[in-house]
Amino acid sequence: MPERAQEPLSGRTVRKSFQVVEVTGPSMVPTLYHGDWLLVQHGAPVRPGDVVILRHPFQQDLLVVKRAAERRGAGWWVLGDNSFAGGDSTDYGTVPEELVLARARARYRPLRKDQRSVLGLLGWAVSAVRRVSSDRSVSRRLRAR
Length: 145
Prior knowledge:
Layout: E1 4-5, E2 18-24, E3 37-42, E4 51-55, E5 63-72, E6 75-79, H1 89-92, E7 95-96, E8 100-108, H2 118-127, E9 129-131, H3 136-144
Antiparallel strand pairs: 1-2, 2-3, 3-8, 4-5, 4-8, 5-6, 6-7, 8-9
């Protein structure tokens, strides 16, 4: 099942506007977990390794969160960080550029109920907000196949 962004994105892309979306599903574990929130930027340039929000090529009302692995022609080859979850370019091929809507800039991980201890709160405080970094190794691994 593809990782989805629950907050609806507008049909038009506004240059450099920001929006917050919620992540559902396991396809981006361990980078993103179900319930994480992403700060995404519309119109930001996409580079290999970036986490992006895109419209599913076959179900364009479905928004998915994937990693842009590499540029292929007029689109992007996108992969989930969890190779067991599926629902990426290995299933539907290259995603056209116009379906890539936004680039993730930061991740917020909400406090879970099991993190109410002092150590749990400290661990959460250290890692609750993180910049979503590019993982360039995904692109290199793809070319090695």
